[in-house]
Amino acid sequence: MGIHIYRAMLCIFCGVLINSYASAQTAKTTPPRKYDIAAFLYPAYVADDPRLRPFWPKGIGEWETVTSVQDRFPGFYWDRKPTWGTINEADPSVMAMEINEATKHGVNVFIFDWYWYDGRPFMETTLNNGFLKADNKDKMKFYLMWANHDVVNTWDVRLNKYNEDNVIWQGKVSRDEFEKICKRNIEKYFKQPNYYKIDGKPVFMIYDIPQLISGLGGIEQTAAALKWFKEETIRAGFPGLDLQLTMWGINLNYSGFDGSKTEKPQNAFVKKLGFTSATHYQFAHFTNVNEDYLKIMESVKKEWDNIDKNFELKYYPHVSVGWDNSPRTGRSAVVKNNTPANFAKALRDAKAFADAHPKQVPLITINSWNEWTETSYLQPDNVYGYGYLKAIKEIFVDQK
To answer: Is Hydrolase there in the keyword field (predicted)?
Structure first.
């Protein structure tokens, strides 16, 4: 009997060794998960775009606001300087450098803020002349966020100090104009080989839902227009459209919307319009940002959980670098303690959220690549150098 027990134990021991070895070999051969790290890109840092001159007459775009802070507010605490200088992002050689730096550090998608005012596109030169003409554009994907908000005096520092909300351009568009926009974007951008797609479906994000509804004439008309947009995308040869919602309060403020008795009105509203995914654009849209960064992140994680519980669409976690709008106005709520180390902690939280949702692509969005005048940017500067980019690289490239 003893010899049989000995043999049985030996077999079990050998089996454990074999399984352990196999697991170790699998771990060695299985590549680390690849994440899509998408940074919003604000396309106002360009030279020689005539439509920007009414706001920034020097011809260097909103770099004019960045470089004039100390002149406008002598001794002011905000004194940021870009390591790369006041670059022209509509220059393809400059954009090629940015693509190299971004992808080297793990940022492999740019989400271009895209505008349409006065019956034509606005701030499109960074995308058309810079990104799409860069010789290494295929290293990076891109998609559009239609920033369809009104334009007031915020950009013009000569006027915004008067606190006037004069509407220069309206963000809302009619159905005819909406169709013109959609057809143009399908042909001009969706068909680009490096346009970002999920399951073959181009991703298109919309910023301001009340403006969209106002222009199109109501919820029913908006749902019909967005349904047409999806069908038009399919007619162009794609399997569908991933319609992405900017998840924040103004876009969900339809408490009176009729849903079923078993469905929350906000979720019913989002489904009615046909949105299939969502992310945030900025922490400032849904929580108090005049706080310590790690305290803000506690609110952010609660928001992620709330979305998980109350919405059926796919939510992709968002991390903002910070918030301080004072370069434009001289006053602002200010995120405190948003060091690269704390930013790295937020990225790990976003990574954990993505890993907990294995049935959706591991997309994480970041505000932003270059929102200098909102003090929420990844580009290197005189304060933290390459610190924010290094944090992304450590977590998503080096996988530490």
So the answer is: yes
pTM for the model:
0.91
- 67 and 135 co-located in one domain: yes
Q: Cα 380 to the chain's mean position, in Å?
A: 19
User: Does one domain contain both 15 and 106?
Assistant: no
Q: Please check whether residues 4 and 152 belong to one and the same domain.
A: no
Per-chain mean pLDDT for the chain: 91
**Model confidence pLDDT, tens digit, residues 60-91:** 999 999 999 999 999 999 999 999 999 999 99
| Statement to judge: residues 220 and 337 lie in one domain | yes
- Parent domain of 12: 1-30
pLDDT in tens, 388-399: 999 999 999 998
User: Do both 3 and 150 map to the same domain?
Assistant: no
- pLDDT surpassing 50 at residue 178: yes
